[in-house]
Design brief:
Layout: H1 8-23, E1 42-47, E2 53-57, H2 70-83, E3 91-92, H3 96-101, E4 119-120, H4 121-129, H5 134-145, H6 148-161, E5 166-167, E6 178-179, H7 181-194, H8 199-202, E7 206-209, E8 212-215, E9 231-239, E10 243-252, E11 255-264, H9 267-288, H10 300-309, H11 328-341, H12 388-396, H13 416-426, H14 448-456, H15 475-489
Length: about 500
């Protein structure tokens, strides 16, 4: 028997607060940022991490991309590098036809290539992505696919595979063909994600070739005319039919977004349009953030989803504290309230009891209900704790266990294997074995089955083939794991 008692009204108050917390998920929000006024006919901004659209204007109309086409050409070159068919030092011959094209106004931008001299893949990539040399694209297309026509077929096949809406007809964009602003954003995101080293090229403010300096046409880069803090790429496009186009990417507080504008009025407005929608994109990240300290954190979407659901996140005012270790109380409260709000929390176990013995009451005697005994806390160390009601409810559901005979250690950081056991008790997982990590031997015997099932379900992933069962997790990681659980139970 526990020595410390809690009056019944205190327990009822705690449970009332629990249900109030579960039902309260909305907070007063600041005014949303004002949408920018831009000259571009089409535009879009997306969150690089999630692909979420933060702003769009007529983003699905097919428009002429001009030299933004070169992004697809460069992407295929990087595919060839990855496949081992090319290296950056591979020397590519320049035919007389392509040497002539490199001097022709029909293939801007003009960067003359010496006939009879081979150029390295590295050099040609720089010429394609920085001064936007069209003939250099054809040189690479001929080398990779045998002809520009065959290369363009691959461009369209790649676009279809990436989910783009595009109709490429050449590899350089100096001549008319069409795609959407949304598709260009998809391509830039895929490029950076798969080949982040491309940013080493797109962030260069210029390149010297054959004794001549060629500045980057993307003037949002540091030190150029329309420098925007955090921009490290991507690509412009300009011909009469296209107007002025620009796809760009910028990082602020560790969070990357991608912008595209198509058919702006002139070189100045494509840069000012881009700056305006980048500003708006970053402002939207802050506005949509459930807490100030996750606005630019990778866990923003997970935390926002849990907050909208009404899960108990135990914030500190306007701070979520994503990098703090998650405690046993925090994870139990977060998981159980998320499952309850989703309607998948297990029910209280039903105890089988013997029927009451029949008694004979004296005639005329009044029936009186037995007085309810004040209930003690489930664990001796949770009385008055902010999570007392959550912990007691989880204990009633037989989801949690203590750290001693009568202790729960609510403020101790929870280990990954403890998280696995709690999830396994909450969710009916298939009896499958997902183990096979190099540190499986570190898993405690009591956690083995739970670790096997949760790993098989993809709820916990390793790092370099390590599950790290005895390590503690951050609050951000806890939010991500719980969202995986909710997706599994949906």
């Amino acid at each position: 028997m526990y020595q410390r008692k809690v009056p019944l009204f205190a327990r009822l108050t705690a449970l009332t607060l629990l249900f109030a917390l579960l039902l309260t998920s909305t907070v007063l929000a600041a005014e949303p940022p004002k949408k920018p006024s831009i000259t571009a006919d089409s535009a879009i901004v997306i969150d690089y991490d999630t692909g979420e659209v933060l702003y769009e204007k007529d983003a699905d109309t097919m428009r002429v991309p001009a030299s933004m086409t070169k992004v697809m050409t460069a992407y295929i070159i990087f595919e060839e590098l990855e496949a081992g068919n090319l290296t950056l030092d591979t020397m590519v011959p320049v035919s007389k036809t392509n040497a002539d094209r490199s001097r022709s106004s029909s293939y801007p931008a003009i960067v003359p290539l010496p006939y009879g001299q081979s150029q390295s893949v590295d050099t040609l990539l720089k010429l394609i992505l920085i001064p936007s040399a069209s003939a250099s694209c054809i040189v690479m297309a001929d080398y990779i696919s045998g002809s520009e026509e065959a290369f363009v077929q691959r461009m369209n096949e790649t676009a279809k595979r990436l989910g783009m809406t595009a109709e490429y007809k050449n590899c350089h964009g100096a001549h008319v063909h069409y795609l959407t602003a949304r598709s260009q954003a998809i391509l830039v995101r895929e490029f950076i994600n798969r080949f982040p080293q491309v940013l080493e090229y797109t962030s260069m403010t210029g390149v010297t070739f054959n004794g001549k300096y060629y500045p980057n046409t993307n003037k949002l880069l540091p030190g150029l005319d329309y420098a925007y803090d955090g921009v490290d790429g991507f690509k412009t496009g300009t011909i009469t039919a296209a107007g002025y186009c620009l796809s760009a990417t910028a990082v602020k507080n560790g969070r990357r977004i991608i912008s595209v504008v198509m058919h702006s009025d002139n070189d100045k407005t494509r840069h000012t349009d881009s700056a305006a929608i980048l500003d708006y994109g970053f402002a939207m990240l802050e506005y949509q953030s459930p807490y100030a300290d996750v606005a630019y954190h990778w866990c923003r979407e997970d935390v926002a989803a849990l907050k909208e659901l009404g899960a108990e996140l135990h914030p500190d005012g306007e701070s979520f504290r994503p990098e703090d270790n998650v405690t046993r109380a925090e994870f139990a409260a977060m998981l159980c309230t998320a499952l309850e709000q989703s309607g998948v929390l297990p029910e209280v176990p039903v105890e089988e009891t013997a029927p009451p013995a029949e008694t004979t009451e004296p005639e005329g005697a009044e029936e009186t209900a037995p007085a309810e005994e004040p209930q003690a806390p489930t664990f001796a160390d949770i009385e008055g704790h902010w999570a007392q009601a959550y912990i007691e409810k989880a204990a009633e559901l037989e989801l949690i266990s203590g750290t001693g005979d009568d202790t729960f250690s609510p403020d101790r950081s929870i280990t990954r294997q403890e998280m696995m056991v709690l999830i396994d008790r909450c969710v009916d997982l298939p009896d499958e074995n997902g183990l096979g990590f190099s540190d499986d031997s570190q898993i405690a015997f009591w956690a083995l089955e739970a670790a096997a099932r949760t790993a098989a379900a993809g709820l916990f992933q390793g790092d370099n083939n390590k599950l790290m069962p005895t390590d503690t997790a951050s609050r951000a990681e806890a939010a991500a794991v719980i969202n995986r659980v909710l997706a599994l139970t949906a």
